[in-house]
Each structure stands twice: as structure tokens, then as C-alpha cells.
Write a structure and sequence with these properties.
The protein is of the alpha/beta class and 254 residues long. The chain contains eight helices and seven strands. The mean pLDDT is 96.
């Protein structure tokens, strides 16, 4: 009997991560680096702190400057490949939110959210998948969904639409690309300590309501996503396709 292989290692892999400057994206990049991957970080500003922490893990980070609302995903992938020889893993983390009553949400706010959270995700995934198919290489695509992929929420119509659409898109791409050896899955974070939740955490009433529903009794920290990210990025998940994995402290189970 041969010895089992270390299926959670990401040695000799490269991961493209969007929005890796802070918060959840930074946690994804650092977790994948600690598992052995080099990182292509896509964003509007250089992720200096993330780069330092990736370097401390003994891995390499290359910055790809891009605004996902404007840049062509194929160009982003081409620029990443000019700095790193291949892309094996894609983490579609970057996202934006607009909080307004549905009676007041305007078309610009709708379009900006859908463009970043859904349209850019599809075309970036397509570009990476085309690269993987051309290489005849296996790969992993991880989308970042939301509790609002399962629930409606309030005052976030465009965000809910984008994250609900992302859940369906994850399953569709899993169906189409599994024969190519590409796993497409999603992580659905619960209520985490990020810039997007600052207003909620500052609202004493809303904060108490949220904590009262989380069985774990606390807000998630970005580092709580590390295990799920490494699992879905590694060969440990080779037979996992089209899953939306909640990392929510038990929120959906309540």
C-alpha cells in the first residue's frame, strides 16, 4: 500500500485572488499562501500588508492593478500570466454593497453591484477556465457567496440579487466544467468583522439581534475562513462540485 498523499497542500500552485487588500480577501490570500500557493492579487491598491504576510509564509505575491467594474477580465488574467507562469486557483472574493430601500435604489447603484459581484465573476471565471482547458490542467474556482444567497435581507436589493445569482452560477459552471477537471464551488460567509459590516456592528440593536441568532455567539473573524478556502482549493475537494459552503457560526441552522 502506498503512503497517502498530503491532499491539502497547495505547493506549486498559483492562486488569483480578487480584493486581497483587507478583510476576507486578505484572509483567503494568506491561508492559501500558508498552504503553499503563490498569489496574484487583483485590486485597485497595492496590498502591501497582504504581500508582507504572504512573504512571511515563504510565498510570492504579484499585484495586478485593476478595477473590476471597468477592466476586461481577459486582460487581468493575461497580466497575471505575464508575472506568474500559470493560474491554478481563482478566488472571486471582491464585492460591493449598496444599502438603500428598494423604493429608492437607482439604476446606477444596481448596475455597479451587479457588474462587480456577478458579471466580473463570470467573465473572470471564464478567462481562467479557458486558460486551464488550454493547458489541459485541473483547477479550482471558489466564489464568495453570502447568507443572502439563501435569504432575502432588507435594503440590499442589488446585493441580494447578485449573491443569489452567484449561487446559481456556481452550480451551472460546476456542471459545465467538471468534465474539464475544474471544480467550481462557493463559500458563503455569515456575519463577519469586515468594512461592509461596520454599520451593523455599530448599531447596538441590530448587533444584538444578529448575535442572538448565531449559535457560536460571536461575529466571524476573517481567519475563520482559512480552512474552508484551503479545502476547496486543494485536491482534498476533487470530488466536490457545485457546493455553496456556509461558514456562518450556525446562522442558517438556527
Amino acid at each position: 500500500m502506498t503512503a497517502p498523499q498530503p491532499t491539502f497542500t497547495l505547493e506549486n500552485r498559483t492562486a488569483l485572488v480578487t480584493g486581497a487588500n483587507t478583510g476576507l480577501g486578505q484572509a483567503f490570500a494568506i491561508a492559501l499562501a500558508h498552504a503553499g500557493a503563490d498569489i496574484a492579487a487583483v485590486g485597485r491598491k497595492p496590498p502591501s500588508d497582504t504581500a508582507a504576510r504572504v512573504a512571511a509564509a515563504g510565498r510570492r505575491l504579484e499585484f495586478i492593478e485593476a478595477d473590476l467594474d471597468e477592466a476586461r477580465p481577459a486582460d487581468i488574467v493575461a497580466r497575471a500570466l505575464s508575472k506568474l507562469d500559470a493560474i491554478d486557483i481563482l478566488v472571486n472574493n471582491a464585492g460591493i454593497i449598496r444599502r438603500k430601500d428598494a423604493l429608492e435604489l437607482d439604476e446606477r447603484d444596481w448596475d455597479e453591484v451587479i457588474n462587480v459581484n456577478l458579471k466580473a465573476v463570470f467573465f473572470l471565471s471564464q478567462a481562467v477556465a479557458q486558460h486551464l482547458v488550454a493547458r489541459r490542467a485541473k483547477g479550482k474556482i471558489i466564489n464568495v457567496a453570502s447568507m443572502l444567497s439563501f435569504q432575502g435581507g432588507v435594503r440590499v436589493a442589488s446585493y441580494t440579487a447578485s449573491k443569489s445569482g452567484l449561487a446559481g452560477l456556481t452550480k451551472l459552471l460546476a456542471n459545465e466544467w467538471a468534465p474539464h477537471g475544474i471544480n467550481v464551488n462557493a463559500i458563503a460567509p455569515g456575519y463577519f468583522v469586515t468594512d461592509n459590516t461596520t454599520a451593523l456592528r455599530a448599531d447596538a440593536k441590530r448587533n444584538a439581534e444578529i448575535l442572538g441568532r448565531i449559535p457560536a455567539g460571536r461575529w466571524g473573524e476573517p481567519e475563520d475562513l482559512a480552512g474552508a478556502a484551503v479545502f476547496l482549493a486543494s485536491s482534498a475537494s476533487d470530488y466536490v462540485h457545485g457546493v455553496i459552503l456556509p461558514v456562518d457560526g450556525g446562522w442558517l441552522a438556527r
